[in-house]
Specification:
Helix content: 25-40%
CATH superfamily of the largest domain: Crystallins
Strand content: 25-35%
Distance between the termini: 59 Å
Largest sheet: 6 strands, antiparallel
Shape: elongated
Number of helices: 12
Structural class: alpha+beta
CATH topology of the largest domain: Gamma-B Crystallin, domain 1
CATH architecture of the largest domain: Sandwich
Length: 438
């Protein structure tokens, strides 16, 4: 309400009554209301429409089978291999490394990784044990022939060792990104399990001689969100260890999740989606919807392998095998004869490469958040009822934004990097698309 309007109402008895009513409404909106309703959001899946391009089951499998995550066995390995019950951690590592050298299967590589971490996560190693660990890592870095499906996905290994303190001191955690996947994921539960959540200060990244290269990404929060910092393999020589004696104040002691990402041959340069005009396209569209106005720039980010919850204050899809471009549009909703409400409109956008190598994108889920107040429920329902009618326009704008990128196919696959793919940033800055040509 403008100052002049308030002055006129104060001079008019009827205006005073209206002002009192508005004050009461304000109290109801921001005062003691049902806390469960104040921050409630909704989310729904978009139902396919006739003639819409959607991925086949085979295309979904090819698109989503790009990540790997596991919890280390560590001290429980004897439960699975009773023969090791009488052997110590060092002897166990030597045994697994020898077995992996003779038979470099994926499972044998994981056993070596677990045996290494059984030692390194207990604290700083003496010289003899450090040499044992180094020799075991060399076994993992040897050229291998482990493949999955029709492609080896640039197949050898990338690995990193994350240290508690700067200059590679203290306990450490070894992560081997073996053949077959774009992403190796480490969540907060794994870091907590080795007492390294919010406690990483140095690292190195290395790779086998035949690996194309890749990078390690440290994230401030679990689920690969918040601040991030990028640590790539050595440019042009990935098998030369890239040493980082201090990760920098931006991310020091702030890591709660980690991604190891494999690069590929035939990659196009990374493309931040906002450079294609996606944010502007969404802003133009949202600003044209009757009854709402933008209260800030749309946020183009990612939602990587979401696991819900599908209801509550901040719902997400329950799609643990899918990666989404996640768009949040902050808006103000005009409520006639009432106070305006802040709200968010949300879209989860799924990208995929079809069997012909063509890039596609469509809105898979939509949702909304509305701030608390007496009219919260009706406004949220109103937005959710209106959103299905917007999906076709958003899909058309996605096609426009991606048309340049799509023109350079055919592609083998696509994957994401956080933000603008800068060395440091925030996942809310943007999301970057990497396309791999056939």
């Amino acid at each position: 309400m403008k100052k002049q309007e308030m002055e006129r109402m104060l001079m008019d008895p009827e205006g005073l009554k209206k002002l009192s009513e508005r004050a009461l409404a304000l109290k109801q909106k921001y005062g003691e209301t049902d806390s469960r309703a104040q921050f409630t959001s909704k989310i729904r899946r978009v139902e396919p429409v006739p003639h819409e391009i959607r991925p086949t089951t085979e295309e979904i499998r090819a698109n989503d089978l790009d990540h790997f995550e596991r919890r280390a066995v560590l001290g429980s390995v004897e439960r699975f291999l009773p023969d090791l019950a009488t052997k110590g951690p060092k002897e166990t590592l030597s045994l697994f490394a020898s077995r992996c050298k003779d038979s470099p299967s994926f499972n044998n590589q994981l056993l070596v990784e677990d045996a290494i971490n059984r030692l390194t996560t207990q604290g700083e190693l003496d010289d003899q044990t450090e040499k044992l660990v180094t020799d075991a890592i060399k076994v993992l870095g040897a050229e291998k022939a482990v493949k999955r499906g029709k492609t080896d996905r640039e197949s050898d290994s990338i690995w990193t060792r994350l240290y508690q303190h700067s200059d590679y001191r203290g306990r450490s955690y070894f992560i081997n990104h073996g053949p077959g996947w774009v992403y190796r994921r480490v969540r907060v539960g794994s870091l907590n399990g080795v007492s390294l959540n919010d406690a990483i200060s140095s690292l190195y990244v290395d790779a086998s001689a035949t690996e194309v290269g890749g990078q390690v990404l440290l994230f401030q929060h679990d689920r690969f969100i918040g601040r991030y910092a990028t640590f790539p393999t050595t440019a042009g020589a990935p098998s030369t260890a890239a040493l980082t004696p201090y990760v920098g104040g931006f991310i020091n002691d702030r890591t709660s999740s980690v991604l190891v990402v494999r690069s590929s041959t035939n990659e196009l340069p990374p493309i931040p989606l906002n450079s294609l005009g996606l944010r502007d396209e969404i802003a133009d569209f949202a600003g044209s919807v009757p009854g709402i106005s933008l209260r800030g720039d749309p946020i183009v980010t990612w939602d990587m392998w979401p696991e819900g919850p599908t209801s509550g204050s901040d719902p997400h899809p329950n799609e643990p095998d899918r990666r989404y471009v996640y768009v949040r549009v902050p808006v103000e909703v005009d409520v006639p004869h009432w106070w305006d409400y802040d709200a968010d409109i949300r879209y989860w956008i799924y990208l995929f490469v079809d069997a012909a190598g063509t890039l596609h994108a469509f809105v898979d889920y939509y949702g909304a958040w509305v701030e608390g107040g007496v009219k919260h429920d009706s406004i949220l329902d109103r937005i959710m009822d209106a959103l299905p009618g917007t999906v076709g326009d958003v899909n058309a704008r996605l096609t426009d934004a991606l048309s340049i990128a799509a023109a350079f196919g055919p592609y083998e696959r696509q994957y994401f990097l956080p933000g603008t793919a800068a060395a440091t940033g925030n996942t809310n800055d943007d999301v970057t698309l990497v396309l791999v040509r056939r």
